């Protein structure tokens, strides 16, 4: 792929995002950036959250991991579905009852402004590191697949991506992101389907024959019941359940889109629909993984191994798309990486802005001061025992901590 072709594809893709940004930036209110006027269609939000839930790293790692761990990731997917039920029926009603824009506003209602700001600051720090890591790994994939060959420096790619995201989100924030992420999710799913069909065509299989080939492949094992295995069913299921609660239900960047829906009932539908959509997408990734290894074996592509396992499994999908699927495969992979990168980073930036808006000053000094005031013991702040019992009533975790006599009445 030449530099001009690459530039034209990126410009065409970005132009679509800018058109959406222009259309959604009309009739804005002061709070539109944060709450999207609470008028987003729930099905659109649900579909758009696929892109936020699947990073460029997942795009290459889930199919590649099939070679070593079969389809055991499906057990994790089942756990995420269960976790979504908890988010939809336990957390969403609380957020809507309190009419929250930042979900950490619950801390303000339950424990006071100091705890709220402390929680927001912890989110700012953790989300900043998380977003930076996702961006770093996504750009690394783009560099490896495309930009290194064109001698584009790493720092320039990062700066360009951040500048492009800012350009289409700075006016309407979450209102624009709801629509752009839906478009990017559609591109992401389309690319996966294109990859599957490319392999099917290359292997000369019918649709039924493809399903049979996947079913009969040695890697097509869904469940691992071995107690000591790292991919044991119960370990994977519980992990999926807890991670979904933490990274969906308790994450501002994911919940902020859900809170743009008009009411709690539709927001619950959004979360359940999203869990179905992303489970379907991840299942397609697993099917693609089986087909990739079938393709590699059928075409005699050498794969590095060591100690009975495949090495560098994350490189397999880029290798096949760039060298064996033709120009269509390369373009599709480029669009998929760009879509997953933009969709996973833009919501983070908006969520960080929302959390930061809770502080009277955005300076580091103000943040550190808030953290200090949240950690030191004062007569008017809730103690750790009260905080624990507030979040997990009856769990007993707070019994080991000393409850101060001067705790506020709401503790």
CATH topology value of the largest domain: Sodium/glucose cotransporter
Overall geometry: globular
- Give the percentage of residues in beta strands: under 5%
Q: Would you report the number of β strands?
A: 2
Strand line-up of the largest beta sheet: 1-2
SSE ordering: HHHHHHHHHHHHHEEHHHH
- Please name the fourth-level CATH homologous superfamily of the largest domain: Sodium/glucose cotransporter
Mean pLDDT: 77
What is the structural class? mainly alpha
Helix content: over 70%
Instruction: Give the termini distance in whole angstroms.
Output: 62 Å
Number of helices: 17
Describe what this molecule looks like in 3D.
This protein is 71% helix and 1% strand. It has 17 helices and two strands. The protein has a two-stranded antiparallel ribbon with strand order 1-2. Helix 3 (42-53) crosses helix 13 (264-298) and helix 3 (42-53) packs across helix 15. The longest helix is centred in the first third of the chain and has 35 residues, at 113-147. The chain is globular, with a radius of gyration of 23 Å. It starts with a helix and ends in a 20-residue tail after the last helix. Residues 361-411 have low confidence and may be disordered.
Provide the descriptors you would attach to this structure in a database record:
mainly alpha; Sodium/glucose cotransporter; 411 residues; two-stranded antiparallel sheet; single chain; 2 strands; 17 helices
Quick overview:
This protein is mostly helical and 411 residues long. 71% of the residues lie in helices and 1% in strands.
